[in-house]
Design brief:
The protein is mainly alpha-helical. Among the domains are: 141 residues, Lysozyme (Orthogonal Bundle); 71 residues. 45% of the residues lie in helices and 4% in strands. It is built from twelve helices and four strands; from the N terminus they run αββαααααββαααααα.
């Protein structure tokens, strides 16, 4: 780093403001004496100093030791504000605590923001045997961090309407938009209004007009007029076209194949007349325009595609009655495995055998259980009687379960 730094007047005021002035020596809780602006090395009982003497002792006796400590321990270059903040911080926490703190290690690693953040950890003290956050230390750490992060050129002005932002590289200020002079002239009531010039087409307007013209060519219609085409306004007292003229013009545009009905008299309800069905008439489809296919440069040119034949007109009647084929529905149900509902006799004949088999299985199960109970209480007289109970129980239980399953399926299918 450069030449040795000394604590500036701003740093001295910061330390004096937080240490406070003691004109007479007072005793600390640990037994030491303190006088002036935090001087403890030669303080003793009955010693009294003036503010000028206390400032001389602080600047030329106490702080030089801290300044030399920072010169020896901090390896990164420091500004005057950073040096003053570190002197106040190290003078407050002590030389040993500063040497072992993370503030010093972060500074030597080149991380100034981490060093300033670690200074905030030293805001606690022991009061009455308990470690607490002390208000005076909170305010002192905030002031030291603020001084540590202040640029040597001073605080930057906030850009606004009166202050232009200055780039970080120190170049010229950002250019301001040019000012346009607006001249407002009075116009008389009888002066005609000047015609408005058509605005130049932008890229979106040109693209929209190209799309509408292409759609008009595909549909075989005339392209719509541009949106900015002026129309002649009606003169005072002049009436627009009547309803009959509008209807006649639409009929002329529709052609001989399409007839436009006359407008209904006022007061009548809309819709077809009584007794006349409403049907949709299909219009003959017009053949699409022929567009030649462009071939690549390396290939031979291709012939244009032949036009498609016109589609046949189909009349769709949306009010005709719909006939339902019941035989077709039954046949489809049989093919898909869903037979139509049977009558009561057929349904009864389908699930009665399963009911009988289920009952037979239940009876066999009961008899087998009874044989098992009797065999457990009395010894069997014959060797074959020992197998009778398990055989009846297993066979009856299996028959009951299977028959009950098929009985349930037969009954649910009928429903």
């Amino acid at each position: 780093m450069g030449g040795p730094l000394r604590t500036s007047a701003r740093g001295l005021e910061l330390i004096k403001g937080f240490e406070g002035f003691r004109p007479r020596a007072s005793r600390l809780p640990d037994g030491r004496w303190i006088v002036g602006y935090g001087h403890t090395r030669t303080a003793r009982a009955g010693l009294a100093v003036s503010p000028q003497d206390a400032e001389l002792v602080l600047a030329h006796s106490d702080l030089p030791q801290i300044e030399q400590l920072i010169q020896d321990e901090v390896l990164a270059p420091l500004t005057q504000n950073e040096f003053d903040a570190l002197v106040s911080f190290a003078w407050n926490i002590g030389a040993g605590a500063f040497q072992s703190s993370s503030v010093l290690s972060s500074l030597n690693e080149g991380d100034r923001l981490a060093a300033a953040s670690d200074m905030w950890l030293w805001r606690k003290g022991r009061v009455g045997g308990e470690v607490k956050i002390i208000d005076a230390l909170v305010r002192r750490r905030a002031a030291e961090i603020s001084l540590f992060l202040t640029h040597p050129s001073g605080p930057a002005a906030v850009p606004g309407a009166l202050i232009r932002p200055i780039p970080e590289d120190g170049g010229q200020p950002f250019p301001q938009p040019p000012e346009h002079t607006v001249i407002i002239e009075a116009r008389g009531e009888g002066d005609p209004e000047a015609p408005r010039a058509r605005a130049a087409d932008t890229a979106p307007r040109a693209a929209a007009r190209a799309v509408s013209e292409r759609i008009a060519r595909i549909l075989g219609e005339s392209p719509p007029p541009p949106p900015s085409t002026p129309t002649r306004p009606l003169a005072p007292g002049e009436e627009g076209p009547s309803v009959e003229e509008i209807t006649r013009a639409i009929a002329d545009l529709a052609g001989p194949g399409d007839e436009v009905p006359p407008p209904p008299p006022p007061g009548t309800a809309k819709g077809p007349p009584d007794g006349v069905e409403r049907r949709r008439t299909a219009r003959p489809a017009s053949p699409p325009p022929v567009q030649p296919t462009l071939a690549p440069v390396t290939a031979a040119p291709l012939a244009p595609e032949a036009p498609l034949p016109p589609a046949e007109g189909v009349i769709v009647d949306d009010l005709a009655p719909v006939e339902i084929d019941t035989n077709g529905i039954e046949r489809a149900l049989k093919e898909n495995g869903h037979a139509p509902h049977a009558n009561g006799a057929e349904a009864l004949g389908r699930w009665v055998p399963y009911a009988l088999l289920s009952g037979l299985g239940l009876v066999s199960l009961v008899l087998g259980v009874r044989e098992l109970v009797e065999a457990a209480s009395e010894p069997a007289l014959y060797e074959g009687e020992a197998w009778l109970g398990p055989l009846l129980s297993l066979g009856g239980g299996f028959l009951f379960v299977v028959a009950t399953y098929y009985l349930y399926r037969a009954m649910t299918q009928d429903e």
